[in-house]
Specification:
The chain is mainly α. It has 26 helices and 4 strands. Belongs to the NOP14 family.
Length: 891
């Protein structure tokens, strides 16, 4: 090929191939076949020249080792042709899908007359039949070569001489002779589509197809006819039955006639024999059975039918009904008191009746449960000091006055009322005696009461009312002042909550606490607390603050001073017991439980033991901590230390000085002046019993029985704390000193019951400590996978052949490697095809946008051109006008 530019090379190649230049001048004309061959040769030459001139159309892969005679696929590639082939393929497939993506398919109904509402069903069917016959006979209407003869109604026309036998006769009565009969025209011509069915039947023509409306009308008519026929049959049956009922009375005497020969028997048993010479009817004479049947029929006739129940009423409607019922009963009671009504009215009899169960009853009626006392093993009533039911202590009364709120404190209040730093009472009641049970027996209970705003007003309300009726009073107050009955009732009930808490504190104060009354008041208190939790929590915190201030005042006097009140009394313990059973104790931070827990820890950590009353109060606080930390299992070291000190105070042991005690827990009262008399006397064999909190807190007399009871309780509490804290990391350090103390107790000087409890507690601690030692592992560095040392050793192949490079001796691993390689290749190919598809679609979108832009530009050019032409014409007219003005001498 000649050197030079691309144009010179192209000219030289075309001239060398004989494509350009002067054509040959021949006289003879070439044939068609030779011309086609010349075109093919010319096209082949042009393709060859095009390939030589464009080196990018062919891509050759150089082989590293060329072996002669070996054919390898893919050495020579044509990227331009491949690209164009891919584009053409995408135009046939991808472009078609892209153009059809926004189209919605469907079926087009092209049946004749289907979308024409003016045509009836018969007209549509007839027109379709006509089109079908025309389509079938298309091309045969004028076929003269057909051998079949033309027929009319199945008969050959060539055999018909006249029209007399085909129903085309003439009407002799017609005035105009030579015309067809009117009936023939009406039936055979286009007037023959009549709906007169009677004429069709007369003429014996085939019946037409009925429309849907006519079919449905016939179905409805048949249904009504069938219904009417059944109703008539039912009326006839009722008439026959009525006649039989009327005639049955006349037939009854004949059918059930008594046997004159029978000796007073009313019936003949089945299978029995009849006397000879007596007449028996075919039906058994059973008048007794008939009488039972008649009685049963009469009962069914007068039986009361079930009535639908009333709808479920809302809470507001129920509250309003209850209030109206109480007010009505109170009016009746007052009339009876004044003698205006009989004394045996229904109001009093229904005063204590339970409300009727409704559809919305959730079994939440208040049930008076007997309050078992203040705590497990410590509480109890004055009537039964030895039977405690711990499961009934879920809801208990709140704080009352402190321990010294009895007669002794009343004497000190009159003297030291104005002194600074004196203890503050949780409730302040002036000129009010302690409640007494059974003070209002025999007196009729009113039905309406005012809502008290203070505790003094509540005491006036329940002054002459028995303790059993106090819950009824509260229930009626809550019903009369329900929240939905008035806008101010919400605040009244909030005040009632605080009043009831104060009353519970009042009735649990010494010297005669009434725990039975507390148990009946607790359901009302809990219901009000759930309705108004914020106000109740604030009131509880207020009481806890007063207790904390009293503790600080007692500590300021001196923790070892016997007159200092550094331990909670009966009412204060009741308050803490209520807090633990009412609020959630497992929360990390709680508005009521957190300050209560801090206060209890301060009592146990800062209080000094001076008597059995202090030990009793402290042990009860330890039981409260057991209840508080049952779920969270938080460590309370003050409780464990206090119980260990109680064991040292009460049990006989071998320790003489505080330095000889094991461990590091504080024991400030060990062998103190007040604690020496608290130890059990040697040789005491009093069997331990359940400690009575009321008796121990009120009667400050250190008896041997009380000491034995408290020591037994201390052993139990130590075991319970050990079971709770066995999963702690520091359990060994916490309980090893406690175990040493228990081992050095002189068990021979105690009763058998205490010895058994001591052995059980020691065995439990030994077993738990053994498990803790086994679970504890020494500290060591964090275990991790060793970091390998980097190596730079080259990788050697087992074979040097390329085609054996991926051959693995393991067949499964080799197949897995092939699959991974195939997956990688397929993934790359899919990604490449997806990119090509996206590029192709982008080009299509760009081409569409170019077409839109071109059309827009052309349209704008036409608009601007027309505007410019109009403007040019306007200017030309203005110039002409100005010229005319100048010619006329005007400017």
């Amino acid at each position: 090929m000649a050197k030079g530019s691309q144009l010179s090379q192209l000219k030289s190649a075309l001239s060398h191939a004989g494509i350009t230049g002067k054509p040959q001048q021949g006289k003879k004309r070439k044939r068609t076949g030779s011309v086609d061959k010349d075109k093919e040769k010319r096209t082949a030459k042009l393709d060859e020249i095009h390939k030589k001139l464009n080196p990018f159309d062919t891509k050759v892969t150089k082989l590293k080792h060329d072996v002669g005679g070996r054919k390898i696929k893919g050495v020579v590639g044509r990227p331009a042709q491949s690209k164009q082939a891919g584009i053409e393929q995408r135009k046939k497939t991808l472009l078609e899908e892209f153009n059809e993506k926004d189209r919605a398919g469907g079926i087009v109904d092209r049946r004749f007359g289907e979308n024409d509402p003016t045509m009836s069903l018969e007209e549509r069917m007839l027109e379709r039949f006509t089109k079908e016959r025309q389509r079938a006979s298309k091309g045969m209407s004028f076929n003269l070569e057909d051998e079949d003869e033309l027929t009319h109604y199945g008969q050959s026309l060539s055999k018909l001489d006249d029209f007399d036998n085909v129903g085309l006769g003439l009407d002799d009565d017609d005035e105009d002779k030579g015309q067809l009969d009117r009936d023939i025209v009406r039936r055979t011509h286009f007037g023959g589509f009549d709906d007169d069915e009677q004429e069709d039947e007369d003429n014996e023509e085939p019946a037409r197809k009925k429309s849907k409306a006519e079919v449905m009308a016939e179905v409805m008519a048949k249904s009504k006819e069938h219904k009417l026929r059944r109703q008539m049959e039912r009326e006839q049956e009722e008439n026959v039955r009525h006649e039989l009922d009327q005639d049955f009375d006349a037939l009854r005497e004949l059918i059930f006639a008594p046997d004159p020969s029978s000796t007073g028997s009313n019936s003949i048993p089945l299978g029995g024999s009849r006397p000879e010479g007596t007449f028996q009817p075919a039906v058994l004479t059973l008048p007794a059975v008939q009488e039972d049947y008649d009685q049963h029929v009469r009962e069914l006739a007068f039986d009361k039918r079930a009535k639908p129940k009333d709808r479920t009423k809302t809470e507001e409607e129920l509250a309003l009904e209850e209030k109206e019922a109480l007010e009505k009963a109170e009016r009746r009671r007052r009339k009876r008191m004044l003698g205006l009504e009989d004394s045996d009215s229904e109001g009093e009899g229904k005063s204590h009746a339970k409300r009727k169960r409704g559809g919305d009853d959730l079994e939440d009626d208040f049930v008076d449960e007997e309050w078992a006392g203040l705590g497990a093993g410590l509480g109890g009533t004055t009537e039964d000091n030895h039977e405690i039911e711990e499961d009934r202590e879920d809801e208990s009364g709140e704080d009352g006055s402190d321990e010294g709120s009895g007669n002794e404190e009343d004497e000190e209040d009159s003297e030291n009322e104005a002194e600074e730093g004196e203890h503050e009472d949780l409730i302040r009641i002036k000129n009010a005696g302690h409640p007494k049970s059974g003070k209002g027996k025999g007196k009729e209970l009113p039905f309406t009461f005012p809502c008290p705003e203070t505790h003094e007003e509540f005491l006036k309300i329940v002054d002459d009312i028995d303790d059993i009726d106090v819950p009824t009073v509260i229930k009626r107050i809550r019903a009369l002042y329900h929240t939905s009955l008035g806008p101010d009732n919400k605040f009244k009930l909030q005040t009632l909550t605080t009043v009831l808490i104060d009353h519970v504190l009042y009735v649990t104060s010494p010297p005669e606490p009434h725990f039975n009354l507390v148990s009946s008041l607790l359901p009302h208190i809990n219901a009000l607390m759930q309705a108004y939790p914020v106000e109740a929590a604030e009131y509880f915190v207020e009481k806890i603050s007063i207790m904390h201030k009293n503790l600080k005042r007692g500590l300021s006097r001196g923790a070892s001073d016997p007159s200092a009140k550094t331990w909670p009394g009966l009412s204060e313990l009741s308050l803490l017991r209520i807090i633990g059973s009412t609020w959630s104790t497992s929360d990390l931070n709680h508005a009521v439980i957190s300050p209560a827990r801090v206060l209890m820890g301060a009592y146990l950590g800062l209080g000094r033991v001076r008597s059995l009353v202090d030990i009793t109060s402290g042990l009860f606080l330890c039981t409260l901590f057991l209840q508080f930390e049952e779920l969270s299992k938080r460590l309370v070291p003050e409780a464990v230390n206090f119980v260990a000190n109680v064991v040292l105070h009460l049990a006989p042991h071998q320790y003489k000085t505080i330095e000889s005690l094991p461990g590091y827990f504080p024991s400030p009262d060990f062998q103190s002046e007040h604690c020496r008399p608290l130890s059990l006397r040697k040789g005491n064999k009093d069997a331990p019993r359940k400690a009575n909190l009321v008796e121990l807190l009120i009667n400050n007399k250190p008896t041997e029985q009380a000491k034995s009871d408290l020591l037994s309780l201390a052993f139990n509490i130590l075991g319970q704390f050990a079971d709770m804290y066995k999963s702690l990391e520091g359990f060994i350090e916490l309980y090893v000193p406690v175990l040493d103390i228990l081992k050095h107790i002189d068990a021979a000087d105690m009763a058998n019951g205490l010895q058994t409890q001591l052995v059980t507690c020691v065995n439990t601690l030994v077993r738990l400590l053994k498990f803790s030692h086994q679970a504890r592992q020494p500290l060591r560095l964090q275990a991790h996978k060793p970091i390998p040392i980097p190596t730079y050793i080259p990788k050697f192949e087992s074979t040097s052949s390329n085609y054996l490079r991926r051959q693995d001796p393991d067949h499964e691993r080799n197949e897995a490697s092939k699959l991974r390689n195939q997956y990688k290749q397929e993934r790359k190919g899919a990604i490449r095809e997806l990119r090509k598809d996206a590029k192709f679609l982008a080009g299509v979108e760009q081409q569409k946008q170019k077409e839109k832009d071109r059309a827009y530009n052309e349209r704008m050019k036409r608009v601007f051109g027309s505007i410019e032409g109009e403007r040019a014409e306007e200017k030309a007219m203005e110039r002409e006008k100005s010229k005319e003005k100048r010619r006329a001498g005007r400017k």
